[in-house]
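Local shape tokens

___
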Amino acid sequence: MNTLRRAAHVTLTVAAIAVATACSAGGTTTPAASVTGAAGTATQAPATQAPGAKAAALAPRAASKTARKAGKPKLGIADITPMGEKVERVGVGFPIIVTFDRAVRDRAAAEAALQVQAEKPVEGAWRWVSDRKVVYRTKTYWKPHQKVLFTARLSQIPGNEAAKDVSRRFAVGTANISVVDTKKHVMKVRRDGKLTKTIPISAGRGGLPRNGVDVYLTTTGVHLAMGKKRVETMTSSWLGVTDPKDPLYYKLEIPWAVRISDSGEYVHQSAGDYQFLGKSNQSHGCVRATPAGAKWFYGISQRGDVIEVTGTKRKLDWRNGWSYWQLSWNQWKRGSALPAGSASASPTPSASPSAGEDALQG
């Protein structure tokens, strides 16, 4: 979809993964906007002063400076992922990722100011992944074909009353859920629950251990589509191999590439070797597909679509890209700063969201 292509370069920076993997690495980050509030009102000192009144005249000025300082918001938002409803439709596994403009001292207060309202509500919770970043995930996948409204009521955070509230509405599209069976060498794609296509594939062949991890194996677990490119350059530089004479060296222009992790795993068109598709695993960690299958999969892909890989001995790390579904629901909730049992799901949003909607639209 064109909407996803516009958002394909938006990537999520997470905690470093111990070992890289797969076909290529790298990406670009869209500059983030920020939201600030208005400053306080200054108090003017008298134009003329009586003898001995200098100290008294300075007092209002000092008070004015303090008021201006106090009138500035102490916490704002630097980025919200994904994009709003006018830019893209997202898959049913999508997370809401909020990055603040500075380290958050009172996480509970900040988290309490964040609200998620879905037309088809499901239980959800926030988890802090750094001192500036918090992620919202649902207990089960979002219902497809609906709108979800996120609102950050920053002005309700104590001491942050001068901040502007921010909101963004997301559009959830078709429920695209794919299962990659690396043992049977096939990917089955279901759309809104109906098996739509079965694509022969070839996954990571294994055989290259690094620090106790076979980096040529595709990671088993629940991945999410993070972006896509019509043609992606894939190289062996993630291995530290840059010499064309090295037997491990490669640099390829690969069509129909849908990224599914931060460590360089994609679903993409096979660069030749079509005889292995559906029969054996021969890739550097990516999921290779037939030209027709890869092009079709690229065309339907939305950020947040679910791609579950099964059958390998290498487990996907939950911090690798948007792999938050690797954590159980109880594990996920333990990352919240709010007391256990605090409600996270909200009722259906009103038709007219609050002022400031999509103030951070990228």
The domain at 77-173+327-333 is CATH 2.60.40.3710 (Immunoglobulin-like).
